[in-house]
Structures are given as C-alpha cells and as structure tokens.
Amino acid sequence: MTTADPAGPDLLLEARSLRKEFVTSRGLRKSTLVAVDDVSVGVPAASTLAVVGESGSGKSTLARMCGLLLEPTAGEVVFDGQAVTPEAVQLLRREIQFVFQDPFSSLNPRHTVEQIVTAPLRYQGTRIRKDLRTFAQDLLDRVGINPDHVDRLPSQFSGGQAQRIGIARALACRPRLIICDEAVSALDVSVQAEVLQLLVDLQADYGLGYLFITHDLAVVRLIATHVAVMQSGRLVESGSADQILDAPRERYTQELLKAVPAYPDDWNI
Ligand SMILES: Nc1ncnc2c1ncn2[C@@H]1O[C@H](COP(=O)(O)OP(=O)(O)OP(=O)(O)O)[C@@H](O)[C@H]1O
C-alpha cells in the first residue's frame, strides 16, 4: 500500500487514517464489517480527487465521512487545515455539498425548481441580497437551465437537466467542496460529457474542490487531477491523475485500467 498525497497547507480537505466499522446482525449473531480501513487522502484546493474502486470497496462510505454525514470509527477529517470537531460540523455543512447519482430521487418531486435550489439557504440560514426567485433564476442560468423554467417540477426535465438542478442546489450556499457520488453514472454518455464540462467550468470560476466518487475510469481521465484507488475498504494507491492512470504501481490498479473502454473522441473536455 502506498501512502496518500503528502499533507500540505493547500489541501482543502484531508481524510486522516479514516476507519468505519458497521455492526450488522443476523438473528442473534452480530458481526463487524470494516467498510473503510485506515484511509488517508487529500483534496487539494480547486482540484478534483477521484476515488475509484469496484462496488463495495468503501468509496461512498469514505465520501460520507468526508462530507460529515457519517462519523468515523477512527481517524479524522481536516477541512482547510482545521480538524473537524463535532461542534464545527454544523458550520461546515454549507462549505461541503453533495451531488448524488440519481438526480430524480434526490430532488423533491412535489417542489418547484425555485423551492429546490433555494432550500439550502433555509437549512443553513444563509442570507442573500436578492429575492429568492431572482437568486434561483441566476443559479439556473449558471448551470445551463432556462431561468424561465423556475416554476417547473423535476419531472418536467430530462435526467441531465435534473442533474444540473442538483448542481445548482449544491452551489446555493457557495460551498468550497462538492462531493460528487457517482454524479454522472446514471446519465447517457453524451450527457455525461456535458455535465462534466459544467463541473469543470464551475471549478474554474469558483475555485471549487471536488471529491469525485466513481467506478468509471473513463470519467476519471476527463475530470480528475488526483486519483485514489480503493479495494475492500483499503487505499491501494493514490497520486496525481497522470501518475495513477499512466504509470500505476499496483497490480490492482493496472487490472482496473485494462478494463476501461475508450471514451468517445468528441469528449473534448
Ligand atoms: N449503513 C451500512 N450498514 C452496514 N454495512 C454498510 C453500510 N453502508 C455500507 N456498508 C457496507 O460497507 C461496504 C462498503 O460500501 P460502500 O457503499 O461504501 O462501497 P462503494 O465502493 O461505494 O460501493 P458502490 O459503488 O456499490 O456504492 C459494503 O460491504 C457495504 O455493504
């Protein structure tokens, strides 16, 4: 096993030796499953760390700990150089937002787009200068959705458009880190490319860091600056995207890369 990227002052988020155990019970028998085992990774500011690995390797559990949705059994999360304490979690919630895999199940089907993208302001108690409608329309415009559609329901949009709305909601509180958990996996390939391009543009404009969870190495090539590879809850290796994708040291990573289909030529992100 290799160690994670060296810690440095430019790391926006750092996972230090994170471990997560789940206690499961079948009948009277209890057993402990170690979903994440001593994993250390870092997301440099304005960069994208992709965490890859097959199903069940612990990617989502790691993401949920990094996003402060799940308490680690051991280890710590450091945000902007400060170890996250239980008291700090609430304050940091607005700094770290999520975009999930299935846009439709993560958007309330009975809420209008205006309600959806402004909801985080209410949860976080964030004040804005504009009225909510203008705020929502500006956000929609930023993610490539017609601002005139602000009163529509999620069911009136395509999957790619719904994911853009999910991204708009994630942007509402001006976070510094967005955790994308299989955020483009449910979309058609051509739509994936468009949504990835949007994420790249937003990163350039706002200096966002992304923790990008995916099983799809073709997507990793397009978006990642850094890559961490997981297997059975453990970190196999991590480093710059060029190093991991072009010169992986570990056999497991080499095998994963062999299985990657070529991505279409017109994906010029
Ligand atoms: N709440 C939970 N209770 C018990 N076990 C869990 C829980 N959440 C995850 N696990 C287990 O932890 C392991 C890692 O799961 P996790 O979802 O983090 O992996 P993953 O790499 O994200 O997989 P996938 O790509 O399929 O989502 C799996 O064995 C899973 O069954």
UniProtKB/TrEMBL annotation:
Named from the GO MF annotations, one term is: ATP binding
Q: Please name the InterPro entries in this protein's record.
A: AAA+_ATPase, ABC_transp_ATP-bind, ABC_transporter-like_ATP-bd, ABC_transporter-like_CS, P-loop_NTPase
Q: Which domain of life is it from?
A: Bacteria
Q: Quote the CDD domains the UniProt record gives.
A: ABC_NikE_OppD_transporters
Keywords from the named record: ATP-binding, Nucleotide-binding, Transport
Q: Which residues form the ABC transporter domain?
A: 18-257
Q: Which Pfam families match?
A: ABC_tran
This protein's record includes keyword Transcription regulation: no
UniProt family annotation: Belongs to the ABC transporter superfamily.
Q: What is this protein called?
A: ATP-binding cassette domain-containing protein
